Amino acid sequence: MPSILFLRDAIFALILLPLMAVHHVVATDYVVGDDDGWNTGTNYLTWSEKYNFTVGDVLVFRYLAGQHDVYQVTEETYRSCNSSSGVLRRYASGADRVALEEATTYWFICNTSGHCLGGMKFGISVANSSSQGGVEAQAPAQGGAAPRGAPAWLLGLTIGMWGSLCY
Questions:
Q1: Are the beta carbons of 30 and 124 closer than 8 angstroms?
Q2: What pTM was computed for the model?
Q3: Which of 68, 90, 126, 146 has the fewest Cβ atoms surrounding its Cβ within 10 A?
Q4: What dihedral do alpha carbons 101, 79, 119, 105 form, nearest 10°?
Q5: How far apart are CA 94 and CA 82, in angstroms?
Q6: 111-140: per-residue pLDDT in tens?
Q7: Which residue(s) pair with 69 in the sheet?
């Protein structure tokens, strides 16, 4: 009997524990503005507050190249919308991917004339765990990103299998 209990516990540990760890290793791609993309008229504060950004996640900016751009900037440049200084990176492809590589606050603006002042900007806090979300932003949000971690059905299946081994 002790060998069956050991086997049950070993199977449980081998199946369930890695699934629980997936929650922390799976990076998520977030389309900025969801279905609206990177565009005027989208509320990026509302958009950013819906999510908990963590190291390894990726922001995907979708927009018409030449009509918009993306500047990663300092907080001061974000607040002033003056890109004469404080620009950390520039993107202009229309399909930009920005990897969130460290736990910090990231600030983004559109540098097209009038867009930043019109609200096309946002800031996010990126955490080492999934405990923090959006940071103050300004602008006029929808859509979604895939949830993190293992699907609920897989967790249920694992628990059910473990329970059946008990009897």
A1: no
A2: 0.66
A3: 146
A4: 20
A5: 22
A6: 999 999 999 999 999 999 644 444 443 332
A7: none
